[in-house]
Amino acid sequence: MEFKEVVGRRRTIRYFQSWRPVEREKIQTMLEAARRASCAVNATFMRAIVVFRDQLSRETLEAMKTPVSALNIELAPVHIYIYCDPTAFRGAQDRLKKLVDVGALNATHGWSHKFVDEFVWPNILKPAAENVMTATRPGGAPPIAGVAADAGIATCQAMLAAVDEGLGVCLSAFMPGPIKAALKAPDHWVPLWVLLVGYPAEGWEAGGQRPRPPMEEIYFEGEYGKPFKEDPKVTEHLKAAGMIQRPAPLPWRREEIKALARMFGLPE
Q: Per residue in 68-124, pLDDT tens?
């Protein structure tokens, strides 16, 4: 698929073909997409533990469920538990120097090993590495906010890679305690999300593209209060390219849900 169509086809899938395993190579493709994501100071903050549902004991699977995701956890053949690792800051000094060495950070922009050692490390990276949860940075947000954002970018790339592979995904919260006990996640990892993966049991459209706020309500140009104006010609182009698709609910969605409920023995 072309990129715009991949973006347009992404849905939160809540009905998976529970009986159909996901090929390991497709999970590796998702993880590679995440690994290639942009990340601050060349530190890959995202960490993930891949769990194949059928390898879990019934007791462990039940402990992983939450009130809002119990059915999704039950149906999805693969769970990817996503964390961020704030301690990745600690090796950032050497990783930035590697970017200088390979020509990604250049003298044209003021970069050198000396600049990393004498300015970036003592003024930016060292304070963040020492107290990532509370240290301040320009704008007032602690570095952990950026760490979590970086993990979010990587997660998004994994999700889009899954769609390109013909899979469905559902991003959900999880209860850190039971998961930590089951998966032995390190104490310093910060829990974020679980990405549930499988082949959709519902149609890939999942009832249509979800409603979103108008562009003018959430994006601005020049300053807050001046909306970024949507160009109708661009909108039509994006519809043709598959990024903007038929909105929910599609006419048959209610009947589709009833059929899924009957198939899985769920209340209608």
A: 999 999 999 999 999 999 989 888 999 999 999 999 999 999 999 999 999 999 998
- How far the first Cα of the chain sits from its last, in Å, is 34
Per-residue model confidence as pLDDT tens digits over 123-166: 988 888 887 766 555 556 667 888 999 999 999 999 999 999 99
Complete DSSP assignment for 111-163: --HHHIIIIIIIIIIHHHHH-TTT---TTS--HHHHHHHHHHHHHHHHHHHHH
Give the domain ranges of the chain.
3-201
Helix (H) or strand (E) holding 46: strand 46-52
Instruction: Write the pLDDT tens digit of every residue in 30-50.
Output: 999 999 999 988 989 999 999
CA pair distance 180, 11, nearest whole angstrom: 28
CA dihedral over 247, 226, 238, 164, signed as positive or negative: negative
Residue 214 tokens read as: 């108008």
Burial code (b: 16+ CB inside 10 Å, e: under 16) for 141-167 equals ebbbebbbebbbebbbbbbbbbbbbeb
Q: pTM higher than 0.90, yes or no? A: yes
φ and ψ at 50, to 5 degrees? Answer: -90, 130
CATH of domain 3-201: 3.40.109.10
CA distance 120 to 267: 58
The neighbour count for residue 86, using CB atoms within 10 Å, is 23
